[in-house]
Each structure stands twice: as C-alpha cells, then as structure tokens.
Amino acid sequence: MSEKTSNPSEAVTSAWTSIMRARERLLASIEADLKAASMPPLAWYDVLWELARSQDGKLRPYEIEERTLLAQYNLSRLIDRLEKEGLVRREAFAEDGRGRWVVMTDAGRKLRERMWAVYAKSIETHIGCKLAENEAKTIAGLLDRFL
Amino acid sequence: MSEKTSNPSEAVTSAWTSIMRARERLLASIEADLKAASMPPLAWYDVLWELARSQDGKLRPYEIEERTLLAQYNLSRLIDRLEKEGLVRREAFAEDGRGRWVVMTDAGRKLRERMWAVYAKSIETHIGCKLAENEAKTIAGLLDRFL
DNA sequence: TGACGATAGATGTAAATGCATCTAATATCG
DNA sequence: CGATATTAGATGCATTTACATCTATCGTCA
C-alpha cells in the first residue's frame, strides 16, 4: 500500500556527502589552477574535449549536451561564448533545418591542448597523488553506477 | 630542477570524471525531488542542518562557511534569503563587534525536518538502493581523503 | 495534403554566483 | 598609545544560471 522507502543508512548518507564535498573541493582547486594559468573555466574544456574526440571535430548541440550533462539553455549560451572567442563556430546542419553543427576551430584545438597541460597536472596533483591505482579504479567503478 | 609532475593515469582521470558526473546526476535528481515537493534548494538544507546540529542552534557565519564550503559572499546572501523567509535571524555577537550569530528559528527547524523527510527518501532512492553497505563505506573512505 | 504534436535550439527575464571592494571592529607591534 | 595590518561580514557590479517560453522545422497520421 504505502510507498515505503527505508531511510538511508549512515554509510550511504556519508557516501553522498563525501561525493559532494570531494567534488566541491577538487573542483575549486582545479579551477583555481586554471585561473592561475589564465585559462577559461573547466566547462569550456569539457565542450572542447568532446569536440576534439569526436570524429570530425564537430557535434550537434544535443550531442554535447548528452555527453557533458550541461542543460540545454546553458550549453546554448556557452557555445555563444566559445564562438565569440573564435574557439568554435556554428554551421548549418543540412539534413535537418532545426539542427546545427558546432565545429571546433584551430584556435579551439590549440586552447584545448594548452588547457590539458594545466588540467592534467592539476588532476595529478590533487587527485592522482592521493590515490593508488586500484583505489582510483574502485572509485570510478562504484560511482559509474549512478550514470 | 624541474617541477615534474607525471600525467594522471587513465584510472585517476576516470575517477575524477566519475566524481563530477555522479555528483551532477545525483544532485539533479535530488534537487528535482525537493522541487517536486515544493521545497527550497539543497543549499538551504545544508545551512539549516549545520545550525540544527550545533549546540545552541546558532553559529557564526564563518563557521557555517567552513562546514558547508560555501563561499563567504554566497553564504552572506544565502543567509539574507533565509532570514527573509524567517528561517534564521542574525543577532549581534557580543564578544566581537564584527561578528554575528546566525540563529535558527522554529520555522527553520520545522522546515529542516520537512526537508529531511524528502531528502532522506531521495538519498535512499537514488543512492542507497544502488550501493551495498560496504560499498558506501568504501566511497566515503576514499573520497574523504580529499578533505 | 494538412493539422497537430514533437524536437532542436535560442532567448527574455529573474535569480544566483563570482569578483572586487568596502566598512567596521579587532589584533599587533613599534 | 597610535599606526598599521588583519579579520568578519556586507555589497556593487558583471557574469552565469535557471526557468519559462519562443521560433522554426520536422514527423505523424487522418
């Protein structure tokens, strides 16, 4: 009859708060490193990275949306900013008049690489240094259960 | 001589992206549940919870800041909103003219409890259901290394 | 075909956030 | 003591985000 859901255990609750806090702390550290290197925010990297790893350096907005988990309206405006900086450009999508391509420019590729140099070091410093290989795998394995 | 930091391993990088994505997804689900129940955002809960668990139901802003990882200027304005809703009130801190107390009101206590009913169920549904007890402990243990 | 609902993406407006800076009070140290 | 530095917290302003809605196009089905 009743939609009974038992309350979360102590361990589950503290797993959740650990996820929130770890992410908060780590993101702040990494963003700080990027900023210290005069780089744009991490969200820019995420989009550029999805484009870089795609087949032709171009994706539809909705594809980027799926891969980055950005909200549609946020992505739309993020693309505006990237475009304004010359890192991507929008092109028509012939097969569907509603669609667009987001195409990475050379400047976009270059910036992504420069960002990765900083970002990679930052990941290693803040995360890699504190985890054994198998621990990192454990984290990824368990957390991917939520995707 | 050189500040050599080796690049992060595949496993470390994917641990990081897993943290980001899991948090993103879970937070979105939980916030959606709260909103569906006409409740304020999770950040309100975090502050109210810190107040509720404190000795006298009151804390200094900087204490809340430390415990929630909110930025000082964000917290200051969040307290504005809470105060406007009658959930907390600011009081003078006698021992230091610069300081303030943030005092939880009865309405604040009540709301926190109502929020917890929703929040707890949400945690259990989205997280608890997908983790064994020892897995939850593993996550918390590993992620707390970053705090 | 043509009406209708669904989908891709953009956008106006309000709210929240980030950044820099400000005020007021306290601590430090010559 | 008095000048200076530091700390707690607030705030003006620009940027970003959330929410709702809009436009344009497409797919479906009578």
Report what the structure shows.
Two copies of one chain form a homodimer. Chain A has 147 residues and is mainly alpha-helical. The first copy, chain A, has one domain: Arc Repressor Mutant, subunit A (Orthogonal Bundle). Helices cover 63% and strands 8% of the residues of chain A. Chain A has six helices and three strands, in the order ααβααββαα. A three-stranded antiparallel sheet of chain A has the order 1-3-2. In chain A, a hairpin with a 7-residue loop joins β2 and β3. In chain A, α1 (10-36) packs across α5 and α2 (42-53) crosses α5 (106-126). The longest helix of chain A has 27 residues, at 10-36. Chain A is globular, with a radius of gyration of 19 Å. The model of chain A has no long low-confidence stretch (mean pLDDT 95). The interface between A and B is large, with 47 and 47 residues.
Main attributes of the structure:
homodimer, Tscrpt_reg_MarR-type_CS (chains A, B), 147 residues, 63% helix, mainly alpha, 3 strands, Arc Repressor Mutant, subunit A, DNA-binding, 6 helices
